[in-house]
Every structure is written in structure tokens, then in C-alpha cells.
Amino acid sequence: xKIEVLYPEICCLFGDKxxxxxxxxxxxxxxxxxxxxxxxxxxxxxxxxxxxxxxCSESNQERILSRLKDHKERIEALxxxxxxxxxxxxxxxxxxxxxxxxxxxxxxxxxxxxxYSKRTIPQRFNSLFLGKFDExxxxxxxxxxxxxxxxxxxxxxMSATKxxxxxxxxxxxxxxxxxxYGTYLLGPFLIQNPLFTxxxxxxxxxxxxxxAFEKDVMKAYEIRLGEFKKDIxxxx
Length: 236
Hints:
Blueprint: E1 2-6, H1 17-26, E2 31-35, E3 50-53, H2 58-68, H3 72-81, E4 84-88, E5 98-100, E6 106-108, E7 116-119, E8 125-133, E9 136-144, E10 146-149, E11 156-162, E12 172-177, E13 180-183, H4 189-192, H5 194-203, H6 214-228
Parallel strand pairs: 1-2, 1-3, 3-4, 4-13, 5-7
Antiparallel strand pairs: 5-6, 7-10, 8-9, 8-11, 11-12, 12-13
């Protein structure tokens, strides 16, 4: 099993590195490839089972787009093949049609999923989040300078119950296409959502996966979920 972590030195805001550190503990037999920004992604020339993108600054987002724009066909083929792409924070915006800056300039994106994003700099949006993916309750938080719009229901990752979805009043959050999962949720997303972590392990072919520190992360998840279901302040 081969998992590529793309550009970890720049795709690492809000503690997103913790996602793959934890996933390595869950899958100790897997090969984790950490590709620096100075190198081309290995998934362009090799078979991989999963690719992870973490959140990054807006300037680095544009830098990544400039490197990947000539490889749209390869990326799209991998997604259609069922290779897992997990994208947290603003990283999934590169999969849309374009990203609009506050001055109206539009940055062409990969156009793999039909939606667009708009930056709101200097206005930042902070929110806890509660939603559902299939029958799983999903929890987390977001802190961002952008929203994403016109995501079709079939392309949405999960429903939004409380907090910001893909935009301020959206009923869905993130994008999904086959095994591409993009979410604005940040930080230790996989630690906070152990049921989804087990789901990813199953998608990678692990039968009856036992995730790292399962008893502890499940207890923390259940406590957090109970708190989030209460009438608490979600947006600040």
C-alpha cells in the first residue's frame, strides 16, 4: 500500500500534518511517501493508493496549481480509477473551475469538479462544524478566507447540520467524486472523526481495521459529538 503526502512543508497549516502522522500509526505496514515541493508528485508517474493534500496559504495554493495544471488528465484518471484523494482546508479548491480573488481576478483551477471558490480576504470565517457523511456524524472546525459555491448535491462530501458548510448558509460541506474527499475542516480531522478514518482504511482494502488508540479517540469523539449536539455557539 502506497500513500503520498504532497508538499508537507507548505501544506501544513492548522495542524494538518497530524492527519497523516495519525494515519501512519493506523497503517504501520503502508509506505508513506512525503513529496517536497521541490519534486514532482510521485502519483504522476507511479501507482499509488492514496494522495493527501493539507491546507496551505493562498500564495502556495496558486503555486501548487501552477505545478499541477498540466497534469489534469492524469489526476482525473486516478480519481475515476478510485484512487483516494483526501484534501483538507482550502486545498480542495484547486479541483474546481476557478478561484476568484477579492479584486475579481479569476485563477483558473483544474476543473475536475464543477464548482468555484471566492476568497474573502481580509475577512476570516471561523466555525465549529457538525454534519453527516452517509450515516456517520462528522465533527470539526474551520478557519478560512474563502467559500466554495455551486457544488452540486451529487458532488458534495457531507451534509451540514451546524456551522459553516461550503459557504456561510450552505446545507452541504466539501466535495466528493468517487474516492476524492475535499473538506474545509482542519487540523486533526482524522483523529476527530475515527469512524471516517476506519472507513478510509476499509477503502484501502483493510478488513476490520483497528485504528491507533481506538478506545481513546472514540471516547473523545463521543464526548465532542455530545457537546456539538447541544445548543452551543458554533460561529465566531
